[in-house]
Design a protein that fits this description.
This protein has 10 helices and 15 strands. The chain is of the alpha/beta class. It has 2 domains: 147 residues, 3-Layer(aba) Sandwich (Rossmann fold); 169 residues, Dihydrodipicolinate Reductase, domain 2, CATH 3.30.360.10. A 7-stranded mixed beta sheet has the order 12-11-7-10-9-8-15, with helices on one face. Helix 5 links the parallel strand 5 and strand 6. Helix 4 runs parallel beside helix 5, helix 5 packs antiparallel against helix 10 and helix 7 packs across helix 10. The radius of gyration is 20 Å and the shape is globular. The protein binds nicotinamide-adenine-dinucleotide and (2R,3S,4s,5R,6S)-2,3,4,5,6-pentahydroxycyclohexanone. The site of (2R,3S,4s,5R,6S)-2,3,4,5,6-pentahydroxycyclohexanone (ISE) has 6 residues, from helix 7. The site of nicotinamide-adenine-dinucleotide has 25 residues, from helix 1. Its EC number is 1.1.1.18.
Length: 340
């Protein structure tokens, strides 16, 4: 494939927390791309974000932005329920897409997206499971791949947010947050998740009224491993994502945040990141750069629509387990050859 000579014109759709951060990233950090359009149903927000970038036009309709001559690729950062319509519109123009996780919030809509990409006949989408680009997760995956530790038996994940946004619901702890561990577990182990159990301790007094926070989720995999997730989105003290893989001959653990340890006045310690933009800054930078580079080469790499669909199916089983209690099996269609 020949690499394109000009920079890639990107439309960023959704200019909230994540979208505005991606606009800044493409403008200031990423090479080979420029933001030529931003889209938000909130016109004032779109205009305010567009004003930060020379030559960027604000739109309220994703289809109008995709029709513009200077838009060659699309980064979707609207809320999960809006992703399907935007993905299908991008497929109509055969535009390359980086779609924030979750691909969609449920398995049926994710399957419709998968079927639409299959009709195109080629991959068009990289799904925003950015942990696959985080240097610590990359090291963990590389170590597991060497086989030195033997067969993975269990994964212990902790996923803590300082506070949840006002719109957060009990099911979103699974579909929006644990979606990351569904993907990380599949990717780290190379297994599909076959069943989900969700246990619910008495909610924290610091959780908003009615929010089932924290939750304890257990995945079973087709490789005979277990992966558990503590999801706690109002822990108060910061943003923490940790993973420990227990194997037959040893264990490996990431996310302790020991990059800087201080000793002072009879105490030792460090700091804890306060949000995802801080903890995963390098991962987002790598994710977007990888997407731009692959797109300019005419390729699609990284987490696929299949990965997005599989994570959505796991989360759907998780939401049922949360609501009804007990263990719920994950239902997946057969994996198409496009995603082999
Ligand atoms: P947000 O609510 O801060 O922003 C969403 C923006 O999209 C809002 O400005 C809203 O007006 C706009 N919007 C809503 N519907 C739209 C539509 N149909 N077309 C265009 N714009 C629309 O949400 P957020 O926290 O930025 O999350 C956005 C996406 O990013 C979600 O998919 C979320 O799961 C994902 N996210 C990923 C990470 C990560 O770590 N990878 C972190 C946070 C959010
Ligand atoms: C958010 O959407 C993210 O993706 C963050 O990475 C996660 O920590 C948070 O819980 C989600 O709401």
């Amino acid at each position: 494939m020949t690499e394109r000579a000009t920079t890639l014109g990107v439309a960023v759709i959704g200019t909230g927390r994540m979208g505005a951060d991606h606009v800044r990233r493409i403008h200031e950090v990423t090479s080979g791309a420029r933001v030529t359009a931003v889209v938000d149903v909130d016109a004032e927000r779109a205009k305010a974000v567009a004003a930060r970038v020379d030559g960027c036009t604000a739109y309220t309709d994703p289809a109008a932005a995709m029709a513009a001559a200077d838009v060659e690729a699309v980064l979707i950062a609207s809320p999960g329920p809006a992703h399907e319509a935007t993905l299908l519109a991008a497929f109509e123009r055969d535009l390359p897409v980086l779609c924030e996780k979750p691909l969609t919030p449920d398995a049926a809509s994710a399957l419709r997206v998968l079927e639409a990409e299959l009709r195109l006949g080629h991959r068009r989408v990289q799904v925003g499971f950015m942990r696959r680009y985080d240097p610590e997760y990359v090291k963990l995956k590389a170590l597991l791949t060497t086989g030195q530790l033997g067969r993975p038996l269990m994964v212990h994940n902790r996923h803590r947010n300082a506070a949840s946004p006002p719109f957060f619901t009990s099911t979103m702890l699974i579909s929006d947050s644990v979606a990351h561990e569904a993907d990380a577990t599949r990717w780290l182990l190379g297994h599909e998740i076959t069943a989900v159990t969700v246990l619910r301790p008495t909610p924290s007094a610091n959780a908003p009224d009615g929010l089932r926070d924290p939750q304890f989720v257990v995945f079973e995999t087709d490789g005979g491993a277990l992966s558990d997730v503590e999801i706690f989105v109002n822990c108060g003290f910061g943003y923490q994502v940790q993973a420990e893989v227990v194997c037959e001959r040893g264990t490996a653990r990431i996310g302790d945040g020991h990059a800087l340890v201080t000793n002072m006045a009879g105490r030792w310690g460090g700091t804890i990141a306060q949000d995802f933009t801080e903890r995963f800054e390098t991962a987002y930078d790598q994710e977007v750069q990888t997407w731009v580079d692959a797109t300019r080469r005419g390729e699609v790499t990284g987490p696929s629509v299949w990965d997005g669909y599989a994570a959505a199916a796991v989360c759907e089983a998780g939401v049922r387990a949360l609501e009804d209690g007990g263990r719920v099996e994950v239902e997946l269609v057969e994996r198409p050859a496009l995603y082999a």
